[in-house]
Design brief:
Blueprint: E1 4-5, E2 26-32, H1 39-55, E3 60-65, H2 76-81, E4 87-91, H3 114-126, E5 138-144, E6 149-152, E7 167-170, H4 173-182, E8 185-188, H5 194-199, E9 205-208, H6 210-215, E10 224-227, E11 235-240, H7 242-247, H8 250-258, H9 262-285, E12 289-292, H10 303-319, H11 324-337
Parallel strand pairs: 1-2, 2-3, 2-4, 7-8, 7-9, 10-12
Antiparallel strand pairs: 4-11, 5-11, 6-9, 6-10
Helix pairs in contact: 1-9, 3-9, 3-11, 4-10
Pfam family, one: DctP
Organism: Amphritea atlantica
Protein name: TRAP transporter substrate-binding protein
């Protein structure tokens, strides 16, 4: 069979790029923003690449490009749509207003852990409640990170009033609404930019899970940590270019299909949950300050603000003709059954 190389040929600039097997009929380029040292790179992106290659008997080779080497975080989804990359692992919310129903899972009190959130979002997709948002690519699996928390440089936040005047990195527009409601000044940026922004004093803290504190070295700069159980989570996906998938023969499409869905969603979730434990332990070992809000998002001082932000988001989507409340209700049901 004539070898088919998908996409333009790029120089292999990092040690983490998998060499192209000469016997491969298809070479896929998988782009993401995590650094090569991250568990998500090694045990999700690279592990998926290796498994697809093995399952195809070497007929599919996968080159993994970490650290945004093919496209910046906000451009990763379009990079796959436009075939700059063939596959990506990215955050839906980095492309604002594109996946509004998907991002319902990010609202306060929905997900309890990465495993729980990943089960929720994968089922929402499989039940076709959010699948219409992904018609321009082929999603392989969806997942979430664990609970997001607030990490600051100089001030330990104990109540919403403590946010006043603080510039906090936020990952998505959904989280921005939460921070605005709490009195903070949200500053949008992908996680890889947070370290430099804190270091330069551009922001006073970040909204991240403990995994992010570990992966992006934020424990080096933020020594005050506020845990509000259920504050938010963040949705991710691994997705593929439609034309690339459709060009494959049925037996190789089956290899991709067999490495899609809930099993891989939970593999990713497990990595996030384990990294959360490591990230918190690192902060504890460094002698940092912690404050855990009693009752989490149901705490009387926090609940009215967070409920208002959630209601505002759902009402905004409903006004656009989107079934946000139905998706939200199903997400809450799944949160209980996804144990």
């Amino acid at each position: 069979m004539k070898k088919l190389i998908l996409g333009s040929v790029l120089a292999l600039t990092t040690a983490s790029v998998v060499p192209v097997a000469q016997a491969a009929d298809y070479t896929l380029r998988l782009a993401h923003f995590f650094p090569p040292v991250a568990a998500i790179h090694k045990n999700v992106a690279q592990a998926w690449a290796d498994k697809v290659s093995a399952d195809s008997g070497g007929r599919i080779a996968v080159e993994v490009y970490p650290s945004s080497t093919l496209a910046k975080p906000p451009a990763l989804y379009d990079a796959v749509k436009n075939r700059i990359a063939d596959v990506t692992l990215t955050v839906q919310g980095y492309t604002a207003n594109r996946f509004p129903l998907t991002q319902v899972v990010e609202l306060p009190g929905v997900a309890k852990s990465a495993a729980n959130g990943s089960c929720i979002i994968q089922h929402l997709y499989d039940e076709e409640l959010i699948s219409a948002e992904y018609k321009d690519t082929k999603p392989l699996f969806l997942f979430t990170h664990g609970p997001g928390h607030i990490h600051t440089t100089n001030k330990l936040i104990k109540q919403p009033a403590d946010f006043e005047g603080l510039r906090i990195r936020r990952p998505t527009a959904v989280v921005a609404k939460l921070l605005e409601g709490l009195g903070g000044q949200p500053v949008g940026m992908p996680a890889p930019q947070a370290f430099q922004s804190v270091q330069r004093g551009v922001i006073d803290g970040v909204a991240l899970p403990w995994e992010g504190q570990l992966t992006f070295r934020m424990n080096d700069l933020t020594s005050n940590h506020t845990e509000v159980g259920g504050l938010y989570t963040l949705s991710f996906l691994v997705t593929m270019n439609n034309d690339v998938y459709n060009s494959m023969p049925a037996e190789l499409q089956k290899v991709i299909d067999n490495n899609s869905g809930e099993a891989w969603s939970q593999i990713a979730a497990n990595e996030f949950d384990m990294a959360d434990v490591k990230g918190r332990a690192q902060a504890e070992a460094a002698g940092h300050q912690f404050y855990t809000v009693d009752g989490g998002v149901d705490n009387p001082a926090w609940k009215p603000v967070l409920d208002k932000a959630s209601e505002g988001y759902l009402a905004e989507l409903e006004a656009r003709g989107l079934p946000a409340r139905a998706v939200y209700q199903r997400a809450k049901e799944l949160a209980e059954s996804c144990q």
